Amino acid sequence: MRWGGFERVGERLTKSLWLGVWGAAVLRPYMFLAAFAAETGTAVPRPYCMLVLAGGVMQTANVKWIGDERFVATAPSGHAVAIDSDRKSNTAMGPMEMLLMALGACTATDIVIILKKKRQKLEALNVICSGERAADPPQIWTKFELVYQLRGELDDAAVKHAIELSEGKYCSVSAMLKKTATLKWRYEILPASE
């Protein structure tokens, strides 16, 4: 079988009392993938079985070329997305666009969680991420501007603190991108819906 060692890892994990119901729920889809791979003779990337292990395990994505400058990328979680690096054909998002969206999604997640902990009544959140890239290769991101648009019964100080925590402490994407780019942000609080 091309999954080398999956049965041993799966067996050890499912027998563990620590995993209990969680282990069965999480491991079942990966066992299905292993069975499918064995039946069809296809290779399913090993990281899917490793995903159930806790911390410190290297995660691996799989990017498969499907023609021209188009690819299908599969994340360690098993979710797939189409990518088109050719901005002329533009049949799917490009890799650098994905980074821009990842920045918005990462910080938005932090904001939702932090405001919930602060017992703020957030009704809506929109994060507009704008970025500027270098003119010469490699055309890395050099500047970001984020606009947080929030709606709800929100305290201004709580919103500002949530954004500061996200940008300064919690957002991993922001932390990585700030190594090569500047990041500025502002926010707008819109009144709660009636």
Strand content: 25-35%
Q: Tally the beta strands.
A: 6
Low-confidence runs (pLDDT<50, min 5 residues)?
Answer: 1-28, 46-54
CATH homologous superfamily (4th level) name of the largest domain: K homology (KH) domain
Any idea of the CATH topology of the largest domain? Answer: GMP Synthetase, Chain A, domain 3
The secondary structure category is alpha+beta
CATH class of the largest domain: Alpha Beta
What's the number of structural domains?
A: 3
The spatial strand order of the largest sheet comes to 1-2-3
Please estimate the helix content: 40-55%
- What multimeric state do the chains show? single chain
Give the end-to-end Cα distance, rounded to a whole number of Å: 60 Å
Radius of gyration: 21 Å
Tell me, briefly, the overall form: globular
Main beta sheet: strand number and arrangement? 3 strands, antiparallel
What descriptors fit this protein?
globular, alpha+beta, 6 strands, disordered N terminus, GMP Synthetase, Chain A, domain 3, 3 domains, 41% helix, 3-stranded mixed beta sheet, 3-stranded antiparallel beta sheet, 194 residues, 26% strand
Topology overview:
Layout: H1 6-15, H2 20-40, H3 47-50, E1 62-67, E2 70-74, E3 80-84, H4 95-117, E4 121-133, E5 141-153, H5 156-170, H6 172-177, E6 182-190
Parallel strand pairs: 5-6
Antiparallel strand pairs: 1-2, 2-3, 4-5
